[in-house]
Every structure is written in structure tokens, then in C-alpha cells.
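User: Here's a chain of 395 residues. Predict its fold as C-alpha cells.
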Amino acid sequence: MPESSAARGSHLGATRREGERVTPLELFFDLVFVLAITQCTALMAHHPTWSGMAQGLLVLGILWWGWVGYAWLTSVIDPEEGPVRLVIFGAMASLLIVSLCVPEAFGHLGLTFAIAFGAFRVAHIGLFMLASPDDDALRHSVLGLAASTAIAVTLLVAASFFDDVAQGALWALAIFLDMAGPYFFGSEGWKIVPGHFAERHGLIVIIALGESIVAIGVGAAGALDVGIGVVAVLGVALAAAQWWIYFDVVALISAKRLGEAEVGRQQNELARDSYSYVHLALVAGIVLVAFGLKVTIAHHGEHLHAVPAFALLGGIAIYLLGLVAFRYRHVQSINRQRLGLAIVLLILVPVATAVPALISLAAATVLMWVMIGYEHRSYGEGRNQLRHEAAVGRS
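Assistant: Prediction complete.
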């Protein structure tokens, strides 16, 4: 049997992935995740308190880990071959129900959220089992994941019968145990296609940034004056800055290093730490900024209250700190200018509660682009060479 046929063959109906490009079905799948992210922002906006923001982040954590599982899955199997695509469609339907439950996930739809999320994860585990009939190491890892998934879903079901602090504590415990699972059952058995894995996470960052644009439109509520126009332009400039500092250099270097890592434990742990874990901070930061922008455009002439002020400036800071951690995991060095700007933005949160929201947004946007200008100059010819190599590699 030719090697390509062996790689693709599966007597249980799952076909191993061969290409590195993200497939149209994966992009279609991620569109449902767009709604989930939007719902998290809406949850925070409807409850602009510390507890409301915490609930939004807890929901995002659960949803993120569910999405991450499918990113690992589709780096092993081809989602568009055989009956797999039908199961993916079913998983999308489950995720849609989960997304619709988000605004009341801590209320009367808590149990429905947990059951639908359980179905979403069952489809994921089932497809992974199909992908590992003759791979004992992968099957061992999948069984470990199944155990941590079952515990997390059970805790979410239990949380639906509680309120307030007890409910939040059960959610936090569910997220912690689910995400900590890979540390307990090892990392040697997983399989990834590095180029695909890095691209998939880059695309989800773009999807999250799109939520910032959506938040501007929703916050404007069909109105337009000079202040709203200025906030809209600044909001796009801020989203563009977030895009730039990830995709200009960082995404290229990280994808390259992931591909060069030794296949097996080293590569899997690098993927797990820098993409599955650290990218949650990036997406959480973007979602918080979207919440802050939504409030800012609706009240641009007023000062921000503490929660949306933290969401706007603290969200950018969390995004920057995530990038600092991302770089450190890959090259063991700290980006001091991003760390410094994150600290400055956190210090400015109290100031944002005393000046017009438009001023706070303008200051944050200017600081981001000043940092980008400094970095662009310091990268020198190395940046151009790296981007040229990446372009050649994609062609």
C-alpha cells in the first residue's frame, strides 16, 4: 500500500490529515465560535459589574477549552472526509445551543448549557477515538482527556443547582481540572501538524478581533455623531494595533519554532503551553477590550466606571502580557516594552474613571502605536527577512 494511502486509511471512518492549510469546514465551524465570543461580550455588557465580568470570563474559559480540543482534533484527522464532517455539523449545532445559553448560563439556562456543552465534548472525544484505533499512545491521551472532560461537565451540571459564589467556584474548578488534565495524563501521545495548528490559532485571534469591530457597531446603536465617529476610528486603530503586534512578527516566529521542535513530547508541550493555554489570555484580553469599546462608544463623553475602564485598559494589558508569555515560552526572553506598556495601562485604569472615555481610548491607542513604531524600528532587516521567508514558505 502506498504511504499516502496508509496515512489516510482508517477502517473506522476517520481519515488522517495530510495538508497544513485550514479547511473550509474548519472556518465554517469557527463561525459558530464567533457567536459564542459575541455572547460573552454581551453578558458582560448586560451585567457591567465585577461579578458580571467574572462570569463572562468563566464562560469564555469553558468555551475556549472546548474549541481548543477541536483544534487538536483537526490537526489529526481530516474534518472533511467521510462521516467526520457530519459529526462536526452535529458538534456545531451543540455549540450553537451552548452559545444561545451564554447570557443565562449562570441563571435558568445553566443546566441546558452544561448538557449542550457535554454533547459538544462527547462528539470531540468520539472523533478522537475514531482517529486512534491503531495508535496506543494517542488512545491513552484521549482516554485521559475523556476523564477530565467528564469531571468538568459533571461540575457544570452541579453548578447549575447553585447560585452566586458557590456556582462561580464550581465553574472555576471545572475549568481548572479540565485544563489541567493534560498535565496528569502526559503529552507524548498527541499528534499535530504544526503549520495547521499555528494557523488555526492565528485565525481565531482574527475572529476575536472581529468582535471588537462588532462591539463598536452594537454600541453605536444606529446613531452617528462626531464623537461616535472618532471612537469608531480609534476602535479600528486599536484593533489594528492588536493585529499588528501578533501577526507582523510574533505569529511567524512562533509557527516556525513550533515546526522546528522535536516531534513528540517537546513539540506537543510547546503547542499546549503557547497555543492552548497562553492564547486564552490573548482572546480574553480582546473580549474585554470589545466590552470596553462597546461601553465607550455609547458613553464617549462621560468617564468610564471602574469595570469598563478595567475592561478597556486592562484588556489591552492582558493581551500584551499574553504576548509576553507567548514569546517567553518560545524563545525564553521577555519583551520589555510590551511588559512595560501593560504595567502603564494597568496604572492608568483609575485615571480612566476620571476623564472622558474618548480620552482614555485615544491615549491607549496612541501608546500602542508608539510601541509598534519603536518595535518596527528595532527589528530592522531581520523583520523583512523573516516575513520574506514566511511568504516563500506559503507559496
